[in-house]
Amino acid sequence: MSAGRKLSLGRYDFAAYLTFFAYAAGSVVVPVCLIELARELNFDLASGGMTAGGGLHFGRTVTMVVAMLLVGFVAGRWGTRRTLGTSVLLMSVGILLCALSPGYGLLFLAMLFAGLGEGVIEGLATPFVQNLHPREPGRYVNISHAFWSVGILVTVVVAGWMLAAGYSWRVLTAVVSGVGAFAALLILWPTPAGMHSAESAERADVREIWQRIRKIARSRRFWVFYGAMFLAGGGEFCLTFWSASHIQLHFGETAWGGGIGVAIFALAMVIGRLGAGYFVPQAKLRKMILIAAVFGTGVTVFLPWVTELYQFYLLLFLSGLATAPFWPSIQSHAAERLPELDETMLLILLSCAGVPGCGVFTYLMGFWGDLAGSLATAFYLVPLAYFFIFVLIGFLGKTGREVRN
Predict the structure, then answer these.
(1) For the Major facilitator superfamily (MFS) profile domain, which residue ranges apply (predicted)?
(2) Any domain includes 203
(3) Are residues 145 and 282 in the same domain?
(4) pLDDT tens-digit profile of 208-228?
(5) pLDDT exceeds cutoff 70 at 101
(6) Would you say 149 and 340 are in contact if contact means Cβ atoms under 8 Å apart?
(7) Is residue 115 part of a domain?
(8) What is the DSSP string of 215-229?
(9) Greater confidence, 163 or 184?
(10) Domain that holds residue 241
(11) Cα dist. 91→41, 67, 110, 372 in Å?
(12) What pLDDT is stored for residue 205 in this prediction?
């Protein structure tokens, strides 16, 4: 594919990049530091503290979902830019409170607080970029989402180095908070005259928001995209969440070896999303999604079979390339195919499919692993997810009209 129209980037684009970076870093910084953090705060994972550790992520997910359900109403009243900037600041404060927490209880509350901001970011960051670039938005959305993977990659590598060098987990967490605060400043700083405001077209009251939601929910085509987003989130998070544990349990590697696997996957995601953003025009998004689904199914089906660590690393890299375009491209393609629906609310509701997909598939993979006595066969969930993405997007594109019962 040839490169599309020359990219046009401004202050809000870089603010979006930092937002995705900080959001990803804030999502993984506590898990990456969890062993050291748990020892210091007296819920040692090796001494029965795993439930408490898992509770941190569960609490954060709950407040994220609550925030995502409410974000449409808040953004309709305050506007996309101001709501997003405030949420990034809220997330940063929550992460800073994590760094300052003297015990588990306050750490848990801080994670809940950060989750509120992260839920709004998840719902609004993509519409924010879409509003910036109404022509070929898919390219810019893919590039901005690449910085989620950059955030994971950098955090995993830097955290491993800092912890090995003897730095406190509190220092690393505070640095992540600072990055988020700077991103919030870039978004909230007043817009100069003549500069694109990055706002949605108009404000709306609660009644209008409900009308938009009902209109979206009545669209059969929306539910096809909703299912594809659920599967995309599930497949991506299975690989992100469980790869490190599988490497340690199946290949007998250290936590550092597991972290390398996650970093390889994240690096491939960066390459895939930047490549999609630069080379793939809006009109080719559906074709790219279908190719990625076929390629991803063919690659990930071999994950349970490999017996050498270098083979698993290679498959993780190829899986990352395939996985990269799903989340941003499905959202952008949906907005293009459903122009009669409110774009901001549509993208928010699609994110409300992706995030639960992450949680459900992560749980199912762990449950499958317990039943089988190994995580290896549980990786079959990933190719299943990608195969059904192909079915959903392929069927939708073939009909070219509203899908009927």
Answers:
(1) 12-401
(2) no
(3) no
(4) 778 888 899 998 889 999 999
(5) yes
(6) no
(7) yes
(8) HHHT-HHHHHHHHHH
(9) 184
(10) 219-399
(11) 22, 12, 9, 38
(12) 65
